[in-house]
Write a structure and sequence with these properties.
The complex is a heterodimer of chains A (167) and B (57). Chain A has 167 residues and is of the alpha+beta class. Chain A contains eight helices and seven strands, in the order H-E-H-E-H-E-E-E-H-E-E-H-H-H-H. Chain B is 72% helix and 0% strand. The radius of gyration of chain B is 13 Å and the shape is elongated. The mean pLDDT of chain B is 74. The chains are: A alpha+beta (167), B mainly alpha (57).
């Protein structure tokens, strides 16, 4: 993951992306025990608003440095890395308020636990519900944190449904 | 392949003692091992049967 962090920081420095933050399972593992995941998901903000060519600069930059694409991801060492442009207000805010983590001495921007939980609540697959549970169990986030952020993003009914079913 | 799978499973058992308190980077390394173990076991599913392999030894 250090190689991924180095690549992302280089992209930032070279102006390929405006900002980035790890989210999904890799971000979750900052707080919980290790989980199996297929890839590292990276939330990114880019300057070009054109949806069809949005990720082109990223792929070009990686290919110029010898990284190969693997389906929709770029292979960086042990990790297929998937770049996901900010896609709504919630992910935009998650990126803006991301924290700086550390991977073997290399800084790595990472989405906060409360945003991870509410993004999972919105995505609402079984593995997303497990993520919310794991974050709560690890004490990385409280039910009040999630309730507040869910309300701000119009997800109160989804939170109530989750709470009734799983807590 | 069986030896490699056993070796990876042994690593996972060792981690259970430490779990959440490890550095983030270490947990990412563990995640790679978890993925690799799962992939190998799926690839080798036809042969991967502990009971049968025991009787074959």
């Amino acid at each position: 993951m250090k190689r991924v962090a180095i690549l992302l920081n280089a992209m930032l420095r070279d102006g390929v992306i405006m900002s980035y933050a790890v989210f999904g399972a890799v971000a979750q593992m900052r707080y919980t025990e290790a989980v199996s995941t297929m890839d590292a998901n990276i939330l990114v903000a880019l300057e070009d608003p054109e949806p069809l060519t949005l990720l082109s600069p990223i792929y070009r930059y990686c290919q110029e440095r010898g990284y190969q694409s693997e389906g929709e991801a770029i292979r960086v060492g042990d990790w297929p890395v998937q770049f996901i442009p900010v896609f709504d207000d919630l992910t935009g805010e998650a990126l803006r308020f991301a924290e700086q983590g550390d991977i073997d001495g290399e800084p790595l921007r990472v989405v906060r636990a409360d945003y991870l939980a509410v993004i999972a609540l919105k995505t609402a697959r079984t593995k997303d519900f497990l993520r919310i549970h794991a974050l709560l169990e690890a004490g990385a986030v409280t039910m009040d944190d999630i309730a507040g952020l869910a309300a701000k993003h119009g997800l109160s009914s989804q939170w109530e449904t989750y709470r009734k079913r799983f807590t | 392949m069986k030896d490699e799978i056993y070796s990876l499973l042994k690593k996972q058992a060792d981690w259970q003692k430490q779990r959440k308190s490890q550095p983030w980077a270490e947990k990412c390394r563990q995640s790679v091992i978890l993925r690799r173990t799962g992939n190998l076991m799926r690839e080798d599913a036809a042969k991967w049967n502990p009971d049968r392999s025991k009787s074959n030894d």
